[in-house]
Design a protein that fits this description.
Strand order of the largest sheet: 3-2-1-6-5-4
Distance between the termini: 28 Å
Bound molecules: methionine sulfoxide
Order of helices and strands: HHEEEHEEEH
Helix content: 25-40%
Number of strands: 6
Oligomer: single chain
Radius of gyration: 14 Å
Shape: globular
Length: 151
């Protein structure tokens, strides 16, 4: 399936040591947004130093003003505290949600762990209602594990 085919491409980007880490992260966002039809916004947030907040590192998709997200706020901020995947089939059903674009119908956020510590996350928005399956979760966990190796 498509997601399996993307894994070697992710690895190729990760091991490209001649490029700075943020450029490799951007290339992963580009690859995912361009390759998977139901991935319409793809970005990486990381813990902002010692602060209890997330900072947007890089993304592909519509412009967002939400470059800083306090822990606990929105889907992203909740994942910063829960350390667990968060799959949202319908964003309009969420009380604690930060809207970036009215086009977005669903969201998935998967944490990135380095030495067991939740250091950030990949955030994917979809303009398709309820598009995410277990396959997306497993694939994005793979992406996060790969990313953890270069942080
Ligand atoms: N929707 C997210 C905010 C980030 S944007 O999707 C880019 C949230 O509720 O945390």
């Amino acid at each position: 399936m498509l997601l399996e085919k993307l894994k070697p491409e992710i690895k190729t980007i990760i091991i490209d040591v001649n490029k700075p880490v943020n450029e490799r992260l951007f290339r992963i966002c580009e690859l995912l947004e361009a390759s998977v039809l139901h991935y319409n916004w793809v970005g990486f947030y990381f813990k902002n130093g010692d602060k209890e907040e997330l900072k947007l590192e890089t993304y592909v998709g519509e412009h967002t003003d939400h470059t800083i997200i306090p822990f606990g706020k929105g889907i992203c901020g909740q994942v910063a505290l829960s350390n667990e995947n968060f799959v949202v089939p319908d964003v309009s059903a969420q009380d604690n949600y930060i809207a970036c674009s009215i086009a977005v119908k669903a969201e998935i956020v998967i944490p990135v762990f380095v030495n067991g510590e939740n250091v950030g996350q990949i955030d994917v928005d979809s303009n398709t209602p309820d598009p995410f399956t277990e396959a997306d979760e497993r694939f994005l966990e793979f992406v996060c594990q790969q990313v953890a190796t270069i942080l």
